[in-house]
Write a structure and sequence with these properties.
Blueprint: E1 2-7, E2 10-15, H1 27-42, E3 48-53, H2 64-73, H3 77-95, E4 101-105, E5 109-110, H4 112-118, E6 122-126, E7 133-134, H5 148-156, H6 158-167, E8 170-171, H7 173-178, E9 184-186, H8 191-200, H9 224-241, H10 246-258, H11 263-279, H12 281-298, E10 314-318, H13 322-333, E11 337-341, H14 345-364, H15 370-378, E12 380-383, E13 394-397, H16 403-414, E14 422-425, H17 432-435, E15 445-449, E16 459-464, H18 470-482, E17 486-491, H19 498-514, H20 519-528, H21 535-542, H22 544-558, H23 568-577, E18 590-591, E19 599-600, H24 604-607, H25 617-640, H26 647-658, H27 667-674, H28 676-690, H29 698-706, H30 712-721
Parallel strand pairs: 2-3, 3-4, 4-6, 5-7, 6-9, 10-11, 10-13, 11-12, 13-14, 14-15, 16-17
Antiparallel strand pairs: 1-2, 7-8, 15-16, 18-19
Helix pairs in contact: 2-12, 2-30, 3-11, 5-6, 6-9, 6-10, 9-10, 10-11, 12-26, 13-14, 19-21, 19-25, 19-26, 20-25, 25-27, 27-28, 28-29
The chain binds nicotinamide-adenine-dinucleotide.
């Protein structure tokens, strides 16, 4: 695991985990590293130590599956504190072993990987622009628990360290040099020679913070600079997290408390906060959903087994509007030849120009070369001629949201496609099974639902029609994997999964408006709950008329079963009477002046008279609970009805598709964390006051009775692995 070699008085400890593409810190590798380090320290022939890696990257950090195991396994804080402290002791031993240690950072060093380097006496990075150096733990609800919150500020100063750790920023080697996170950047070929040369000169073997008279660069905690940093830092943390992410607060505490004492006490303080975070459900839920389960989905966990691997080489895209243009961009970027078809060649060209625009930006920022730009654009063939679709392995239609238009393009395309080709629709609202009726082969017809903007949104919702075959699913999954997006697989019901649940957030906001709650309170509480935006502003962003159209269609289809809510009158007036369609026409719940920030439309008060203009903490809490629970109940209903069949799809999909409060780990994780029985009781109470939409599905009642949770099997597995 750690290759060990002594040459010319220098011990080279090279991380090289077998059977893994990247080095990670786990129990095995840490033990092996500790042994190698002690061996070098004990060898009198060794005067200096180089730590490096035998792989392309240096060290990708702690194995989060291991951290997750710790999170779900150990319940006793004292045991956990002891276990987590082991990493601190190892790194502390490295920096105080008496021999100079150089980190020769040949590639990416993240999290614990970078912390190991911070505990070396000197850091040299290879000039590899693809390498990333950073402490991203906050992104999964953790803090850098291997000394990061203590060593980085002691090296580079309070303020830059605070920013880097709170944001989880990754730096290129050159940027890391500018930040003084590394001491040198050299050409990759010279890395080891330079590390040896350093050791042959007059290397340090004591850290600055272990020397008498050490001062934190830029100013200590109790200094005018420290005062400013903490005052502003605390304000930013509260503004950005609304107190939903305990990690951010814990990081601030580590800085504030740990940097007023010596390094050893500081490290202990860090471990104490790290232990508290591990025991808090937020980190465990975030790691499970945003790391472990998302990775499972990315690796094809939901791909039907038994279907041979497929590859889309030539893709047809029908409709070069906003979605078609985006699909062409992400597909051509992945090396797929795209035929981009529209009714007029100008429209198709306009769709291609979207890719050119994005690539121009990438070239000007140094993120792509001119050759790469040309090669990618050459893969997008614009046309109006269906014959050009011959030979496509997959066709995705993104034409107008009209059953007739979609049926027409399906027939025209299929007339020239080979027998194995799969046809997909990007519809956001029309049932896949009914669109498949226009197809020559409903088994080869599937929904591939992208989100806008396609190049930024990581999720793709794959929808199985009633007759969709597992081969069509395999083709869709292999395609989504190739374009490096995360797929979830759902069944064909009204609104599929994501639009249906998201719709409840928006409509609950409107119901609150109808109840007389001031719109500013509704949107502020939505944001404070951890949603990306309030329900009213999000409704404006997706377009009020679209939402209204969907409601009307549902009302028509469901007849008496449709639950008519008071808020509908408000939307009807906004859309039908006042032509307020949302951000797209500059008029919705908000006004959108061309050169100023949006503001709430004053006329709204006439449609929805305000009866509650101030929210005391109890009311704010109730609004928050309602906004989150309403979505969670719908997600549970989708699971109960078989719209989603895998809890990973439900939780990962919710966060990636509509930004469901990431701190919860997703709607089903939220229900588990609240406790199913308590959740059911709270929902029953809400249903009694606000209506049947809060009534939990029978599945949740059964689970509550049986004392079961959604992730029970998962926790059982983690416990068994302990
Ligand atoms: P758009 O209006 O921007 O683009 C539609 C394009 O289809 C236009 O360029 C139009 O000229 C072309 N078109 C129309 N009829 C055609 C035909 N017979 N043959 C070939 N081309 C034809 O629409 P959009 O926003 O890109 O949406 C397209 C589809 O994607 C819709 O089904 C929509 O529901 C779905 N969708 C949209 C979003 C979104 O956020 N906009 C998100 C997910 C899915």
């Amino acid at each position: 695991m750690i290759d060990y070699k002594v040459e010319d008085g220098v011990a080279v400890l090279s991380w090289n985990l077998p059977d893994r593409s990247m080095n990670v810190l786990n129990e095995g590798s840490l033990t092996a590293y500790a042994e190698a380090l002690e061996r070098a320290v004990a060898d009198p022939a060794v005067t200096g130590i180089i730590v490096t890696s035998g792989k392309d990257s240096f060290l990708a950090g702690a194995d989060l599956a291991m951290v997750k195991g710790a999170a779900f396994g150990a319940k006793d804080p004292a045991v956990l504190f002891e276990r987590l402290g082991a990493l601190q002791r190892l790194f502390r031993r490295q920096e105080s072993c008496g021999k100079p240690v150089v980190a020769a950072i040949n590639g990416t060093a993240l999290g614990g990987g970078l912390e190991l380097c911070l505990a070396a006496h000197y850091r040299i990075a290879a000039d590899n622009p693809r390498a990333e150096l950073g402490l991203p733990e906050v992104k999964v609800g953790l803090l850098p628990g291997g000394g990061g919150t203590q060593r980085l500020p002691r090296m580079i100063g309070l303020q830059p360290a605070m920013q880097a750790i709170l944001k989880g920023t990754s730096f290129s080697p050159q940027d890391a040099l500018g930040m003084k996170i590394v001491d040198e950047v050299v050409p990759a070929a010279d890395l080891m020679a330079r590390a040896r040369a350093y050791l042959k000169g007059s290397p340090r073997s004591v850290q600055p913070w272990d020397e008498r008279g050490f001062r934190i660069p830029g100013g200590a905690v109790q200094s005018p600079m420290g005062f400013q940093t903490f005052t502003a830092g605390n304000a930013v943390v509260v503004k950005e997290t609304y107190g939903n992410y305990p990690a951010a607060k814990a990081i601030m505490s580590c800085f504030y408390e740990g940097l007023q004492v010596g390094i050893d006490a500081g490290l202990t303080i860090e471990t104490r906060y790290f232990t508290a975070l591990i025991l808090d459900p937020v980190a465990g839920n975030m790691i499970r959903t945003l790391f472990v389960n998302m990775q499972d989905l990315n690796k094809g966990a939901r791909r039907p087994t038994g279907e041979p691997k497929t590859e889309v080489r030539k893709l047809g895209i029908l409709g070069a509007g906003m979605m078609g243009a985006g699909i062409a961009y992400v597909s051509s970027r992945a090396g797929i030849d795209c035929v981009l078809l529209d009714t007029a060649i100008e429209a198709a060209e306009k769709g291609k120009a979207y890719s050119a625009g994005l690539l121009d930006k990438a070239v000007s920022r140094g993120k792509a070369t001119a050759e790469k730009r040309e090669a990618q654009l050459a893969r997008i063939h614009t046309t109006t001629d269906y014959a050009d679709l011959a030979g496509c392995d997959l066709v995705i239609e993104a034409v107008f949201e009209s059953r007739e238009v979609k049926a027409g393009v399906t027939k025209q395309a299929e007339a020239v496609l080979g027998p194995d080709a799969v046809f997909a629709s990007n519809t956001s609202t029309l049932p896949i099974s009914s669109l498949a009726e226009a197809s020559r082969d409903p088994g080869a017809f599937i929904g591939i639902h992208f989100f806008s903007p396609v190049d930024k949104m990581m999720l793709v919702e794959i929808i199985m029609g009633a007759e969709t075959s597992s081969r069509a699913l395999a083709v869709a999954m292999d395609y989504v994997q190739k374009i490096k997006k995360t797929p979830i697989v759902v069944n064909d019901r009204r609104g599929f999964y994501t639009s249906r649940c998201f719709g409840t957030y928006v409509s609950e906001g409107i119901e609150m408006l109808a109840e007389g709650i001031a719109p500013a309170i509704i949107d502020n509480v939505g944001r404070a709950a951890g949603m990306p935006r309030g329900p009213l502003e999000m409704n404006d962003d997706v377009a009020l008329d679209l939402g209204w159209k969907i409601r009307c269609a549902a009302r028509k289809d469901l007849g008496d079963a449709y639950e008519l809510l008071p808020g509908e009158a408000i939307v009807e007036a906004l859309v039908d009477r006042l032509g307020r369609y949302g951000r797209k026409n500059g008029k919705g719940f908000y006004e959108y002046p061309a050169d100023a920030k949006k503001y709430l439309w004053p006329g709204l008060a006439e449609l929805a008279p305000v009866r509650v203009s101030e929210a005391d903490p109890a009311l704010a809490k109730e609004i928050r609970t309602r906004l989150l629970y309403r979505q969670a109940i719908e997600a549970a209903r989708c699971f109960a009805e078989g719209v989603v069949t895998d809890i990973r799809d439900a939780d990962v999909g919710a966060i990636l598709a509509w930004g469901f409060a990431p701190w919860t780990g997703g709607p089903l994780s939220l229900i588990d964390t609240v406790g199913v029985a308590r959740f059911v009781a709270e929902c029953d109470a809400l249903a009694a006051r606000f209506g049947q939409r809060y009534s939990p599905p029978q599945l949740l009642r059964d689970m509550a009775k049986a004392g079961r949770s959604f992730y029970q099997a998962d926790t059982a597995q983690a416990a068994a692995a302990e």
